[in-house]
Design goal:
Layout lengths: L1 E7 L5 H12 L4 E7 L8 H10 L21 E4 L2 H6 L9 E3 L10 H23 L3 E6 L3 E7 L4 H12 L8 H5 L1 E9 L2 E8 L3 H8 L6
Parallel strand pairs: 1-2, 1-3, 3-4
Antiparallel strand pairs: 5-6, 6-8, 7-8
């Protein structure tokens, strides 16, 4: 089980929502905690209401200072506001840190909290998944062309997007000569384990070079 600390300024809105979302959606592999560099001491009522409506509120969620978590050993620290990023303290145990900023909904209407909830779910959770389970690519030459096996935090939709960009001429990772060698591309598998078969007189080295420039993966 990996442990993650979500750090913001007041530990009242964003970090509490993130903590609850991670624990609800990623409970099989990740346990989340949250804290504030200048903790407000209370959870924003709209944040609590939203999490209750989503069915993921826990009574032990509360606004707390760094003193409550500073001695814990985390696998990852995530700052979700610029202030926390700039003032993130040195932890006793060396810990990787990433920043994924979100607008503070404090003082705004309830809809702002719903928006932040959605953004945290669609942006932050995939970042965590990718950090702990990075995308791996294995390129192999076949009789008909080249096959790529993608494993890890890879979504089938992302591979489809990459293929469509190539077919529509929107791909910048290959030159026109390389694209002209491809006769077909087929995507198989499910999220986490995808196979892309590329037919044509194209080499393994050309595909590896294109993957290294891809903006989709």
């Amino acid at each position: 089980m990996k442990t993650v600390l979500i750090l913001c300024t007041g530990n009242s809105c964003r970090s509490i929502i993130a903590e609850a979302l991670i624990n609800a959606k990623m409970s099989d592999s990740v346990k989340a905690f949250s804290s504030g560099v200048k903790a407000s001491g209370s959870v924003n009522p709209n944040a609590k209401k939203l999490l209750e409506e989503k069915g993921i509120w826990r009574d032990d969620y509360h606004s707390k200072t760094l003193d409550a978590v500073i001695d814990k050993q985390f696998d990852l620290i995530i700052t979700v506001c610029d202030s926390a990023k700039e003032t993130c303290p040195i932890f006793p145990h060396p810990t990787p840190k990433i920043h994924v900023g979100f607008e503070d909904p404090d003082g705004k209407e309830y809809e702002a909290f719903e928006k932040i909830y959605s953004e945290i779910e669609t942006v932050l959770l995939p970042k965590i998944e990718e950090f702990f389970n990075p995308i791996r690519k294995k390129v192999m030459k076949t009789n008909s062309g080249v096959k790529i096996n993608f494993t890890g935090a890879v979504a089938k939709a992302s591979i489809f997007t990459m293929v469509q960009n190539c077919k529509n001429g929107q791909c910048e990772c290959m030159d026109d000569e390389t694209k002209s060698k491809i006769t077909d591309m087929q995507v198989d598998g499910e999220d986490g384990s995808i196979e892309l078969n590329i037919s044509g007189e194209i080499s393994k080295e050309e595909i590896e070079a294109a993957l290294s420039k891809s903006k989709v993966l």
